[in-house]
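In this section we walk through a basic example: taking a raw amino acid sequence and producing a predicted 3D structure, encoded as discrete structure tokens. The instruction is simple. Fold the sequence below.
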Amino acid sequence: MIFRYLLLTIFLCFCFESVAQADDFSYADIAERFGDTRLDAQSVKEAKMHGECLVGLKQLIFVKRAEFDPVAEWINYRTISLLEQFPPCNVLIMMEVAREELMEQGE
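The resulting token sequence is shown next.
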């Protein structure tokens, strides 16, 4: 019986410790643990730029509209395949240009 309580206590401690460590997966925390292999400052700066470009793509695609927007639907479909081939900022530029052109043709 005491063995069961001991096992349960160890298990619960492990569970709570795992939850407490869940915040340890930010890039800063990971880079601190793996200092020799962390990205250099320029790579981090580029990654942050690409992260902002992903936000730009999301905003381009998911703008609330009163009616169905076929251009946004097309951009959503194309973006996924383009992100497999190009960095996010390149895709954002392509989609911004494509949206402008398609909107002009639709007028």
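Looking at the output, two observations stand out. The mean pLDDT is 80. The first helix runs from residue 2 to 20. In the next section we compare this with other chains.
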